[in-house]
Amino acid sequence: MIIHNFKEENSIINQFISELRDVTIQKDAMRFRKNIERIGEILSYELSKTLNYTHKTVQTPLGDKNISLPKDNLVLCSILRAGLPLHQGVLNYFDGAENAFISAYRHHPNNENAFEVIVNYLASPSINNKVLLLIDPMLATGKTLENTLKAIKKHGIPKQIHILSVIGSTQGVEYVKKVFPENTHLWIATIDQKINNRGYIVPGLGDAGDLSYGIKL
Prior knowledge:
It is built from 6 helices and 12 strands. By secondary structure, it is an alpha/beta fold. It has one domain: Rossmann fold. The strands form 3 sheets. Strands 1, 4, 5, 6, 7, 8, 9 and 10 form an 8-stranded mixed beta sheet that branches. It has a two-stranded antiparallel sheet with strand order 2-3. The model has no long low-confidence stretch (mean pLDDT 93).
């Protein structure tokens, strides 16, 4: 796996991560969603540099200009519901892409620490021989991404996979390295060292879905 960890360099993405983590600022759900969206835009810009391009002649009012434009067919797959703000940021840049949505949630039997990831909804176009962008803001254990990949492969085999996340754990990153193809790219704003007994990233930022859209039952 090729890992692009933006924690390793100074950029404006650090400002957005700081605000996402801040317990006082994250009370503003609209700002929380917007910061995730902006990180999605930054990751998309960097990812765009790795795509395949073709030359196209564009006619202006004063003449013609040859321009390099992306030629890959993209499918953006967001993991509901926490992935929606990040998905919007990616879609802002890849507005011509096809879109897929999948529900994946943690089931804690009897409210115990152990959990399984359950996938029970998928809407997707064909991903066969296309570039698949898997969008999940929190890469904690990696099991959600693993189950998402298993489910969406029913719609074809992509020629390339990119994962876009906001915050990950070292354990989660190592896990997806084992279960995804070697040429998969991971685009991530920052990586924390630990997860707790409930499988949440520490220090992380909390539950991205709840902070974006309200606490669930």
